Description:
The structure is a single chain. The protein has 19 helices and twelve strands. It is of the alpha/beta class. It folds into two domains: 12-119, no CATH class; 131-442, Nucleoside phosphorylase/phosphoribosyltransferase catalytic domain (Pyrimidine Nucleoside Phosphorylase, Chain A, domain 2), CATH 3.40.1030.10. Helix 6 (108-119) packs across helix 13. The two termini are 29 Å apart.
Amino acid sequence: MKRISAIQLNGAKQAKQEAREVLAKTHYSINGPMPSSISLSVLDRKVKHGYDLRFEEAFAGMNYVLAATNNHFREKFYDSLSIGKAQILGVSFLQLMATKESLKYLTPEEVAGVSAVSFSDLIIRLPFANEVFEGCGMGGDKGFGSEDIAKTINASTLSSLVLASLGIPVVKHGSYCNTSALGSTEVIELFGAKTNFVSVEAIEDLFAQTNFFYADAHWCKTIHDLSHLLMMETINHIVGPMTPPIAAETTIHRLMGVNEKVHPATIAQAYEILNQKGFQKIGNAIIVCGLSREADGVDIKDHRVVKKYAILDELSPYQSVVAVLQNGKYVDTFSLYPEDFGISIKPEKIQVPSNQEQIHQANLKALKGEDPDLADYLAMNAALGLFVFRYLSQKDAITPYGWGSRYALNSSHLQACFKECRQAIEKGEPYKLLQKYVKLSNQ
């Protein structure tokens, strides 16, 4: 049987490729709609004349990318297309959309269209449970912008461990680093956990014993390979986080962080489209973008404004923008502050130099509760995930405040979530779960 991977990568990513080759032999099947026959020249002309793509057009364009990375997909739908020609078309579409995103923005229809293709590329889609919490971030955050750019802990990865320690079924989807010294895959691997699984049964057993599974994007998809072959920025940062290896019928409750290239509401509305079209069942979700100190009082619904002030793909110690979905439908976009969780965060106390070892040590201190400031910051991010899973479907999750028709996330629920997460960290529960996961994953 021919390899599924059309592009060979080196280093750690090559090990991920080899693991997915083993899984693909017995588990991969192409599930998804047949690509349309819209030519790339039509899409190119439309975008360069200032128009947005419809879902079907973005879907058609991204299929050229998948044809360049997935041998099985290309042979089934593009049998007359050589690998060389497929790569030329795939690169052209990636560059087209990356340029549009940089100079203007991508629409919810475009984000949903390019993401929908990646579901056909997933090597496995597992029904971990009837419903799961899934956390992921886009990476590419700007950091705190001091002379030596300061980052912070890997909040989304650590938050997933906190939630799993509370008995919530969690699938954490992630990748290698982008602009920080550590991405979520490096975080998990530095902790000692295995990420190159070749047995579905082992995955299911691991999840059953820990309520947790970490899924590396390169391990379960080929579509990222072209971007990494190019070694340049594409729309990979959107397609990856949007498509975890979870069964379409499993309800996903999401907390997803975005960088400055895309507005949280765009992702929220894209998920509503994917939910409606049946690509993935989405329950409740919050899409978050952390802003800088200078953003206070700005219009958080203005894409250009958010792009200007975005610094983190997680909650900020200053102000954050959160776009909310309830039961698979986009509701609205709100501001969120640490005070909504009943705390204050001192920005200088959570900054960490962008150095692999220093971030790793900061991650450990946060997870163990050894650094109170980092533990508070972690608990705040975990609390938002707990709010998504436990409270967001309730009628009082979003409450009116002040004069007029203004609404906000229910601070009483947020504060209760923070206390529960902080207490779990104080008791050492997330670190205990991590140790158990590391041990079992290596067996």
